[in-house]
Design brief:
- By secondary structure, the protein is mostly beta strands.
- Among the domains are: 1-38; 110-156, no CATH class; 168-214, no CATH class; 228-276, Complement Module, domain 1 (Ribbon); 288-336, Ribbon (Complement Module, domain 1).
- Helix content is 6%, strand content 36%.
- It has two helices and 32 strands.
- The strands form eleven sheets. The protein has a four-stranded antiparallel β-sheet with strand order 4-5-7-8, with no helix packed on it. A four-stranded antiparallel β-sheet has the order 15-16-18-19, with no helix packed on it. Strands 21-22-24-25 form a four-stranded antiparallel β-sheet, with no helix packed on it.
């Protein structure tokens, strides 16, 4: 049996006096030896889920309670330990269940799915979400019920350029990164019907969204020239193309021309090589001089005069070479001239005889 222990304290000195049964003082013990002299048990070593503070300083035959540490919830009764003569504890631990931490609510660039369902002292990794690049961090579910918030450095990825049809203007989407949005307007040459379109740069590096409703503008009528047939271009709208042929009365050399309706409502392109057809000779009449019409081609005009021996009354006539190779127009008013020649011999004899007969009748 251990001797009776007396604790003393003097100025500048502290210690323990141990007396034997006869009241004598065989020795003085240092303060550090007090616990051993009293037979104090070493606190039981337990996992992080247990709270053993009640067992500190217990001596032989004394009992203490083991609770659950902060971050754990007890299921049933407290544990009970007893300090034994060999300065160790024996007893039963309580049932302690680790508490689940509250889910992290982080910004879109972070991926914290590894931390879902973690319980006290468990660790998890926070990484960058899809569409972002960066490092990873390690975090721990704290006894307070929250996960430590060490976030990685994440940079949003730039989306691939958005390619839409010609009627859309997607310049606002250039350089957009993950989760950013942009507006789609109508390109020059198209008119919007309703609201602007909206696209979002998604985590896969591409855009998703809905374009606006854009209606192509109609081009101004193409007045290419009489020799061209441009009826195929009527009603064409922005970016549409049409063919240019030769009009009736002209013959094409090579391929048809092609024109495109531009955003400014005008056409650009090339025209075919069209040669005017030569009209058939104009056989007007002997009294007309139509030599000016020789060799005339489609749409060309010529003047009709009076032939030699005929006198014009008014203006010369005018004829136009038509697509069917015939002339149409008006002719001049031509009157035969008086020749002024003497009558022929038989006619003269008759006139003389007539005069003599008339003269004898009045004699």
């Amino acid at each position: 049996m251990l001797p009776r222990v007396l604790v003393f304290s003097l100025v500048g000195v502290s210690g323990v006096v141990a007396e034997d049964g006869r009241g004598e003082v065989p020795r003085v013990y240092a303060a550090a030896d007090v616990l051993a002299l009293q037979g104090e048990c070493t606190a039981p070593a337990v996992d992080a889920g247990y709270n053993n503070t009640d067992c500190v300083g217990k001596v032989e035959n004394e009992t203490c309670s083991i609770a659950c540490a902060a971050g754990w919830t007890i299921d049933g009764a407290l544990g009970l330990y007893t300090c034994q003569a060999n300065q160790t504890f024996t007893g039963e631990l309580p049932t302690c269940n680790a508490n689940e931490c509250t889910a992290l609510n982080l910004d879109a660039e972070y991926n914290s799915t590894d931390c879902v369902g973690k319980v006290t002292v468990e660790t998890c990794t926070i990484s960058c979400a899809a569409g972002y690049e960066g490092n990873t961090t390690s975090n721990t579910c704290q006894p307070s019920g929250v996960v430590s918030d060490a976030r990685p450095t994440c940079t949003a990825n730039e989306c691939t350029a958005l390619i839409l049809d010609a009627e859309y203007n997607s310049t606002d989407c250039v350089g957009k990164v993950t989760a950013e949005t942009c507006s789609i307007a109508c390109a020059t040459g198209w008119t919007i019907d309703g609201a602007l379109g909206s696209y979002t740069c998604d985590s896969g590096g591409s855009f998703a969204g809905t374009p606006p409703t854009c209606t192509a503008n109609e081009c101004t009528a193409l007045n290419s020239g009489d020799q061209y047939d441009d009826t195929d271009c009527n009603g064409k709208t922005t970016a549409q193309t049409c063919s240019i042929a030769c009009a009736a009365g002209w013959t094409i050399a090579g391929s048809p021309g092609s024109q495109t309706c531009q955003a400014n409502k005008t056409f650009t392109g090339d025209l075919p090589n069209c040669t005017a057809n030569t009209c058939n000779a104009l056989n007007s009449d002997a009294k007309y001089d139509d030599t000016d019409c020789n060799g005339k081609t489609t749409a060309q005009t010529c003047s009709i005069a009076c032939a030699a021996g005929w006198t014009i009354a008014g203006s010369p006539g005018s004829q136009t070479c038509q697509a069917n190779k015939n002339f149409t127009g008006d002719l001049p008013n031509c009157t035969a001239k008086d020749s002024g020649a003497l009558p022929s011999a038989p006619l003269a004899g008759m006139l003389v005889a007539l005069c003599l007969h008339v003269g004898s009748a009045f004699a």
